[in-house]
């Protein structure tokens, strides 16, 4: 069997390392944008629409699994063009209106290109899943030049996030074959979370209105 020359292996290893680094840099760019929005909002309105944000870069193992599931070339170029959630950021907000506000503010940034918006809040998944998914492309400047890198941003309320994390655990606990009774209860829980979101948002507006009346 012919073995790959050591230089070729080193070159491939470097290429993969730089590929993964590119996604970390893309996340840093978006995180900086989120931090700026947070700080400015706090300064201007004494209020923070972003409760929390977490990010992750998909592991090479998960990338390969997805590639295998979806089919496709085993090339970095193909992976970059077809797997758009290698870099992911999840933002949690207190209120549904904040979700759209954040999305709107990101859309207005001239260096971000919006590739896709999936609104699972207006159109929830049949299981009750709600979240706003935005895939953006952000320029990353590397030593060899500019790379436009996709980042999947999931924006949801704390209640939606609570539901999604439990649903995710249940889904894997039952090896993706969740019994009907659990599915029904999860759907009910999603509806309760939506009611809670609506109620909290209404209360928030009422409190704000009273605060403004007092200020006038
Ligand atoms: P993927 O191939 O998994 O990326 O699916 P897709 O391309 O159809 O994307 P979609 O926007 O539907 O979902 C992407 C991500 O959203 C998933 O990887 C999860 O993090 C999250 N997600 C989507 N649906 C659900 C769901 O029903 N429950 C939970 N807990 N998370 C979900
Ligand atoms: Mg995904």
From TrEMBL:
Record-linked Gene3D superfamilies: Beta Polymerase, domain 2, Nucleotidyltransferase
Domain (RelA/SpoT): residue spans on this chain: 55-178
Pathways involved: Purine metabolism; ppGpp biosynthesis; ppGpp from GTP: step 1/2
Coiled coil: none
The protein, known as: RelA/SpoT domain-containing protein
Naturally occurring in which organism (per UniProt): Paenibacillus segetis
Source lineage: Bacteria, Bacillati, Bacillota, Bacilli, Bacillales
